[in-house]
Amino acid sequence: MIKTIIKNEKQLLIISILLIVIVTFAIYIPSINGKFVYDDSFYVSNNFYTKNLSSEGLVKIWSNYIFGNYNPVTITSLAVDYKLFGLNTTGYHIVNILFHLLTTIAIIFFIKKLTGNVIIGIFSSLIFAIHPIHVESVSWISGRKDILFSLFFILSLFYYLKYREDNSKKIIYYL
Question: Global pTM?
Fold first, then answer.
């Protein structure tokens, strides 16, 4: 039955990604009404750096520790969110969900490239998408650092594998 509905791997990927997106949104949709908690005030609501997305502000973001941590990519993304949403937490939560979804989709392609099996990639991605260990990072605005780390880590692994396929012609993948 499924073979008659899904005729090729591309259709399987599209349908699977759509289902994973729907399931993930269904799981995380309650978080979009969350407020600032814990150290969100240090990273967002009471953070001078987050509220200053000028070139001068970016230099300060990329050259200072914030709340004892050096997270310039995270703080820059939160500064963009502040510029777009102000102190409306709904936007921050939706962006966290979208970054989590990007990571989830990247996992499909990474595992497919690693194993050669798209089904294993889809299954791994679904487990990653719904696993309870990600709830804190996705639902907590300051947890953005974990989400971004995961996204860049999976993308770097994927592009390393692409580089290994033909390292003489595709140095850009390595870089």
Answer: 0.89
Burial of 15 (C-beta count, 10 Å sphere; 0-12/13-18/19+): middle
User: Could you give the CA distance from residue 99 to residue 138 in angstroms, rounded to a whole number?
Assistant: 9
- Per-residue model confidence as pLDDT tens digits over 19-48: 999 999 999 999 999 998 888 888 898 888
Place of tokens 């953070």: 47
Question: Which residue ranges of the chain lie beneath pLDDT 50?
Answer: 1
Residue 116 backbone class (left: φ over 0; alpha: ψ -120 to 50; beta: rest): left
Residue 75, burial from CB neighbour count under 10 angstroms (0-12, 13-18, 19+): buried
Q: Give CA–CA dist 6/99, Å, rounded.
A: 28
Q: What are phi and psi of 24, to 5 degrees?
A: -65, -45
Token pair 């510029």 is at which residue?
A: 83
Q: Assess contact for 49 and 64: CB atoms under 8 A.
A: yes
Q: What pLDDT, on a 0 to 100 scale, did the predictor assign at position 133?
A: 87
Phi and psi (nearest 5°) for 13? -60, -45
Residue 165 identity (one-letter amino acid):
E
**Residue 102 token pair:** 């990007």
